[in-house]
Amino acid sequence: MMLDPSGRSMDYLRLSITDRCNLRCVYCMPEGGVEWKPHSSFLRLEETLRLCSLLCELGVRRVKLTGGEPLLQKNLEWFLRALHRIPSLEQVTLTTNGLLLADFLGRLGDGAPSLLAGINISLNTNDPAIFAKMARRSELLAVLDGLGRAKSMGIPVKINCVPVRHHNESTLVDLAGLAANEVLAVRFIELMPMGVATGLEGIPTDEIMALIESRFGRLSPDDAKIGNGPAVYYSLPNFKGKIGFISAMSHGFCSSCTRLRLGSDGFLKPCLASDTGLDLKPLVRSGASDDEIKEAMGRLAASKPTGHLFAGSAKPGPNDEDRTYKGPVGMYGIGG
Ligand code: SAM
Ligand code: SF4
């Protein structure tokens, strides 16, 4: 078991399987894409699988495949099936921008619901012009196609929207309306000031709640546990689906966070906003034994900060230079 000093037990891994993406969301990716790096800077899928297996031996039970855009990873289907052979792993879910989703689910066929326990689809607006401006690509129809395919296969779907002032502000309430007739969750994620997002203004949860209530009526707290994350859910009168909020900035949830993050570069981070972590690539490539790698993972988990960097508590200490994270600062490299 990987415990930190405050008793949190790390059982959830967000696995960024690539840092590449086919969108350029204004709050995540630089317009020109990411800096090119040689293949050797990234873990091979076999190496990633070994690390996942070791993390599961240490207590990880749920894995979220993320990125970059995870569906750009060529051998994702092979990897997904291999993950399911790890005996103690209970659940695999996916976070995607949805562009390639219909095609991917088609390839998985009828087995898709047993391979993916849930899919989060990033959709910031249902207005084609605003979508094209925020994602810098006109691909709304492809995303909606993926959403429809996941729903038709019976896979639980959550829509993730990042509200950004002067961008999707005017369509947030319309987006919430998608939960009126569909059994799905529409979730609003507060913008985190990382990488290119530092120049943008997010919209706090309380403001969005007020906007939604002014159109659809009172949001009633809903105790239903949907998924593994820190979202808080509400129901609305006559709505089939739920509305969720992830409020890392205005209502922090660090005290109950049991996540670790493994990047495609092999860097294991104890916190999304942390400046420190453990570069597992040299260990894996220098012939370290499973026990040596697990010991290093355990030490990393024990160093999980009590609160996120945006709150000022996850900065590296004076002796942390060797653990300082030197990878991408945008969310595309960390997995969201
Ligand atoms: N490409 C996939 C997608 O968009 O769902 C997976 C990776 S993306 C980095 C994961 C999540 O992080 C998405 O829901 C995205 O909207 C969110 N995200 C990216 N940058 C963010 C930021 N600065 N603040 C809050 N959420 C962010
Ligand atoms: Fe790509 Fe997801 Fe980042 Fe958008 S949020 S640029 S889809 S990785």
What does this structure look like?
With 336 residues, the protein is of the alpha/beta class. It has one domain (12-333): Aldolase class I (TIM Barrel), CATH 3.20.20.70. Helices cover 26% and strands 15% of the residues. The protein is built from 10 helices and 12 strands. It has helices spanning 45-57, 76-83, 101-108, 112-115, 128-135, 140-152, 172-176, 205-216, 281-285, 290-302; strands spanning 12-16, 62-66, 91-96, 119-122, 157-161, 185-189, 220-222, 232-235, 242-246, 259-262, 267-269, 278-279. Strands 7-8-9-6-5-4-3-2-1-10-11-12 form a 12-stranded mixed beta sheet. Helix 3 runs parallel beside helix 6. The longest helix is centred in the first third of the chain and has 13 residues, at 45-57. The radius of gyration is 19 Å and the shape is globular. The protein starts with 11 loop residues before the first strand and ends in a 34-residue tail after the last helix. Residues 311-325 have low confidence and may be disordered. The structure holds S-adenosylmethionine and iron/sulfur cluster. S-adenosylmethionine binds at residues 21, 27-28, 66-67, 69, 95-97, 122, 160, 162, 189, 191-192, 194, 197, 331-332, 335-336. S-adenosylmethionine binds next to strand 3.
